[in-house]
């Protein structure tokens, strides 16, 4: 494409004039709003099948191990595809990625709703995951690009809060639907919401990026699939291995994943010299990015693991039903949203440490309290501990994400957001493996699925003691985090009315000439 045509395209896709009163332009708010609602929809859907698994086992005539693949396969697909989203955001327009992602998600949801058996249902879930993979990194990168540095704390707090709100509301929604309707309605009810988001995005979403002429590297895609897919699978199967039910020893896929990961990193280091990397390794050269990322690994590992162990405690120790567990989790999601909004304002003024340091201490303390649970612990005490854990986790989640991405140049936003989302997926798989393994070992039973009260208490104490010990690492990490310096490059909508490149700093000199003429 010639420079003149590039300039014309930039001018054609240019966003409306930016406001100068410190607020986001209406067009920027619309872009972020559409992406947020759509991302919340797909994340909520991700959490729906856990509560429905017993019903699916009966209706479809499958084993629990087979049924678990509806979630495991979904997570594996995300782990394989998310590292490539940085490349996709350079190759295609924002609008193209959004429409493609939501279309695939909607088709997958419709297939799952009409599935006559497990095979078709599994296929629908995989298609859903393909559509989901790009949305969260796309939302994070777009927000960093559009929002000026002095407002990023508030906006990114809302964005990152989505990943915590969805797991809290998903089980409650699923429990309510399953108690009244068939499991198919978990998908049927999502279809019109997804279609509405797709239609709104197709009609109102504007392009804010200019694609680059990059070409896909097949070897990178293969290594990424092997590395992240094998790691997630291996980590997820550790819990099964401790009870002797894993089909493959977990160390085999983990070793394969690590070898493939080393090859992937080496390949990206070579490709980034020609600016053609799937995941640019330069993001890891600065401590301002890697330290918050490491803290987030700890928070995600323990956070996701705790959400798997806590329902077991509520069921086996205090005797709550599935629907009651769903209701138990809802206040945590609401509190996370409130704390994130309030914390975002503090971040914009004072940086991450006033939020993250006390948050990590309180969070670890709440985990330690849960490690002391016994048969005399009541629901109010568990709810209070869960709410404290949720609120303090929110004090770390958004500040760590914002601090890390703010330390990067605009050309690295897509790679940074892809790396963060991939790390969360890996940490989530590892967290479930580590804490469920601790739960199983702590039960001192041959069959961890059928425990008496004493064994359940011992299992819960072992799991949350492990969580609290790991949580101490977050305290150390938050003490080393600093607020990134102000971004020297303005957001997309603040650059003389021209669009920016999807992965490179804006240099629209010809477009500026058109604007002035």
UniProtKB/TrEMBL annotation:
Its main location: membrane. The chain crosses the membrane at residues 29-57, 69-89, 96-120, 126-143, 155-179, 185-205, 217-236, 248-265, 286-313, 325-343, 426-445, 457-481. Pfam families: MFS_1 (PF07690). The keyword Ubl conjugation does not apply. Residues 1-20, 486-517 are annotated as: Disordered. It is found in: Cell membrane. GO terms for molecular function: transmembrane transporter activity. Belongs to the major facilitator superfamily. EmrB family. This is DHA2 family lincomycin resistance protein-like MFS transporter. One of its GO terms (cellular component) is plasma membrane. It comes from Streptomyces griseoloalbus. SUPFAM superfamilies: MFS general substrate transporter.
């Amino acid at each position: 494409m010639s420079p003149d045509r590039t300039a014309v395209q930039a001018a054609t896709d240019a966003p409306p004039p930016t406001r100068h009163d410190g607020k986001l332009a209406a067009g920027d708010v619309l872009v972020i709003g559409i992406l947020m609602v759509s991302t919340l929809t797909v994340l909520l859907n991700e959490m729906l099948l856990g509560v429905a698994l017993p019903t699916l086992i009966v209706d479809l005539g499958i084993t629990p191990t087979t049924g678990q693949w509806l979630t495991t396969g979904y997570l594996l697909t995300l782990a394989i595809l998310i590292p490539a989203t940085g490349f996709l955001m350079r190759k295609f327009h924002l609008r193209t990625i959004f429409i493609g992602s939501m279309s695939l998600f909607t088709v997958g949801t419709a297939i799952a709703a009409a599935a006559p058996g497990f095979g078709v249902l599994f296929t629908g879930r995989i298609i859903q995951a393909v559509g989901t993979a790009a949305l969260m990194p796309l939302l994070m990168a777009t927000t960093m690009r559009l929002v000026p540095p002095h407002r990023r704390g508030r906006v990114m707090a809302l964005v990152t809060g989505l990943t915590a709100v969805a797991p809290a509301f998903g089980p409650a929604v699923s429990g309510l639907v399953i108690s009244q309707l068939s499991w198919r309605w978990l998908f049927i009810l999502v279809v019109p919401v997804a279609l509405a988001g797709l239609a709104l995005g197709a009609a109102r979403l504007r392009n804010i990026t200019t694609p680059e002429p990059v070409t896909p590297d097949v070897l990178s895609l293969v290594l990424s699939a092997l590395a992240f897919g094998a790691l997630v699978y291996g980590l997820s199967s550790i819990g099964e291995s401790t009870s002797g039910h894993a089909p493959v020893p977990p160390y085999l896929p983990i070793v394969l994943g690590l070898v493939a990961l080393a090859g992937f990193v080496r390949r990206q280091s070579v490709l980034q010299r020609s600016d053609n990397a799937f995941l640019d390794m330069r993001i890891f050269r600065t401590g301002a990015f890697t330290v918050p990322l490491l803290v987030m690994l700890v928070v995600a590992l323990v956070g996701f693991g705790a959400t798997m162990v806590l329902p077991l405690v509520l069921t086996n120790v205090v005797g709550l039903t599935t629907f009651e567990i769903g209701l138990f989790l809802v206040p945590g999601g609401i509190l996370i949203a409130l704390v994130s909004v309030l914390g975002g304002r503090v971040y914009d003024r004072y940086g991450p440490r006033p939020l993250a340091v006390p948050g990590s201490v309180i969070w670890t303390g709440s985990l330690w309290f849960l490690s002391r649970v016994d048969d005399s612990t009541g629901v109010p005490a568990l709810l209070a501990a869960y709410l404290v854990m949720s609120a303090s986790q929110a004090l770390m989640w958004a500040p760590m994400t914002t601090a890390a991405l703010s330390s990067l140049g605009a050309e690295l936003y897509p790679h940074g957001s892809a790396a963060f989302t991939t790390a969360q997926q890996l940490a989530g798989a590892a967290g479930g493996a580590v804490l469920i393994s601790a739960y199983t070992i702590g039960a001192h039973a041959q069959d961890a699925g059928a425990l008496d009260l004493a064994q359940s208490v011992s299992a819960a104490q072992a799991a949350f003691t492990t969580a609290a010990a790991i949580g101490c690492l977050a305290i150390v990490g938050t003490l080393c985090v600093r607020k990134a310096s102000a971004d020297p490059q303005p957001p997309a909508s603040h650059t003389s009315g021209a669009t920016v490149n999807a992965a490179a700093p804006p240099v629209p000199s010809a477009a500026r000439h058109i604007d002035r003429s």
